[in-house]
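yo, Amidinotransferase is done. seq:
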Amino acid sequence: MQREPRRRTYLMCSPEHFAVEYVINPWMDTSVAVDAAAAVAQWERLRQTLVGLGHEVHTLNPQVGLPDMVFAANGAFVVDGVAYGARFKYPQRSAEAKSHQEFYETNPGWGFVAPTVVNEGEGDFAYLPDAHGGLILAGHGFRTETAAHAEAQEALGRPVVSLRLVDPAFYHLDVALAALDDANIVYYPEAFSPASRKVLAQLFPDAVVADEADARAFGINLVSDGRTVVLNTGSDALAAKLRAVGYETAQVDLSELKKGGGSVKCCVAELRH
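structure:
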């Protein structure tokens, strides 16, 4: 099958101040040292990979005291030029939301809707414009509150399907599920409740199903333009599955950033006009 790419616009933030200074997910360990220079170099390779594929990448200025700001996907969720802002669960990250809000409010062409309940942006939301007329998938169970799903639906005018995450290792939707193109997904079923698995199987019968090893290697935490899937190294079985159904793959080493509990997608917010 010939896959057609769509040019995307992304938002990223350099990990100049990245470190594991606290523990807010099962992957973080403050006793494990982070090589800050290596983290910046790995992030830059990711950015250059996306630019090399023809995509536009905007950047936020990293802030001292916000070591997780590199995980830019968590700062908002954007559909049709409207950004539904984030409200972080943990106080260690709460100040990140202001930088994201300022980006949308100071750059022309974007609307911004301030949240009233906890949600962690594109970490727990995925949008598929060609699936069932345009569908938002939304995770809950560890970070984003279910009330945010209704708030996002009102803010963005797209139907929202709530999916319950049940494994703390997969604390955000974007480590358990990703959009491969505008109509299909890849996901790890065991990260979801039995009822949510049934919903996903009904909505996406042709989805790519990842195994536990690739899920725990952050293989699903990927970015795709509809043809080329950018994912981290160490997810070879998933990369092979994707190529078998017509996608191209580009693997990037993000081993330093994985120490914070994130990989490719966590570093990349999509700006959808």
